[in-house]
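Quick one, tokens below. Sequence please?
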């Protein structure tokens, strides 16, 4: 029904787009840690996947 249709004003859409971009930038950050224990653990946990992918 038409009563469920939502209409957003342009400034709201722009704000949402800005928030989406900021969130995407935050998620795009990569953290690298050099830790032998974690590297070994992750290698063992992911071994089936790595073998499957070749």
């Amino acid at each position: 029904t038409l009563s469920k249709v939502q209409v957003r004003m342009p400034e709201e859409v722009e704000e949402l787009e800005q928030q989406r971009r900021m969130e995407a930038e935050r998620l795009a950050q990569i953290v690298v840690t050099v830790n032998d224990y974690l590297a070994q653990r992750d290698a063992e946990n992911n071994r089936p996947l790595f073998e499957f992918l070749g």
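The mean pLDDT is 78. Helices lie at 10-27, 36-53.
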